[in-house]
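User: Some background: our group keeps a shared notebook of sequences we're curious about, and every so often someone picks one and asks for a predicted structure to add to the entry. Today it's my turn. The entry only has the sequence so far, pasted here. Could you supply the structure so I can complete it?
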Amino acid sequence: MDINIYVQDQSGEKRKLVAPTDMALSLMEFLKGNEYPIEAICGGMALCATCHVEVLEGEFGQRTDAEVDMLDTLFNVTDRSRLACQMRLNEKMNGIVVRLKGEHD
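Assistant: Of course. Here's the predicted structure to add to the notebook entry:
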């Protein structure tokens, strides 16, 4: 099954992306594949926080302990912050709206 994921930019515009749920991709891998500027220096191991996103709408999911530890090192964390590398695409995420969090926002 494919799901819709919306990525909101800094101006508030949303871009709809259609994502497969049958490939065990993380949100980070999917966004990188769609040419979003995610460094993913650690390769998805929750060690660098360069894939920090904020879930604006939709299924938030549970954070792992490693993810919580890494998010605690950032200054721009919200209560809906996640590391995209720790979010596996699944049907519950259909309609999710995320915003990439840079170092300065």
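Suggested note for the entry: Residues 27-33 form the longest helix (7 residues). Residues 27 and 33 are 10 Å apart (CA to CA).
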